[in-house]
Amino acid sequence: MKKYLLAFVMTISFAGLVNAQDKTDSTKQFLQITTVESVIGGGIGRSKLIITNPDASQEEADLENLFSMVGINFKNIKSNELKITQTLKNYTDKGWKLEQVIPLSLSPGQGSNGIFMTRYLFSKTGQK
Questions:
Q1: How many CB atoms lie under 10 A from the CB of residue 66?
Q2: The whole model's pTM is what?
Q3: 120: which of 12, 16, 32, 33 fits an S-S bond (Cβ 3.0–4.6 Å)?
Q4: Which residues, at least 6 apart from 128, have a Cβ–Cβ distance to it below 8 Å?
């Protein structure tokens, strides 16, 4: 009898745990911030910060290109760093948790053309 009672209690406990996890996961939201920084010289490239909200709407902000006509532009790098870190802080202050960071780079063919791209995936548990 004790064996059946223990099995019954364990089954009920497990079912409650699964049910609680389902409720938590169903309210999890995701938000992604993507930075695209151009390494094309002379201001020809375009650099952007793109925010994809949980409702699939998107916001865009300009970033500076990493290179000018004479080479790497540290003022632009500093400006981008400030804008990116302020944006990330803004979302963490609102309760978003940084889940994953994915750095990418693309340089098609030969030459100095290309981009640096970073994706920041955030999650938040709460009301939909």
A1: 22
A2: 0.73
A3: 33
A4: 27, 29, 54
Which DSSP string corresponds to 11-71?
A: HHHHHHHHHHHHHHHHTEEEEEEEEEEE--GGGTS-EEEEEE-TTS-EEEEEE--SEETTE
In sequence order, what are the beta bridge partners of 122? 31, 98
Report strand pairing: 47-52 vs 67-68. unpaired
Residues 104 and 117: beta-carbon distance below 8 Å = yes
User: Which amino acid is located at 113 in the chain?
Assistant: N
Tokens at 42, concatenated:
């002379």
Using alpha carbons only, what angle is made at residue 54 by residues 51 and 56, rounded to the nearest 5 degrees? 70
Which residue stretches of the chain have pLDDT < 50?
6, 9, 17, 20-22, 24
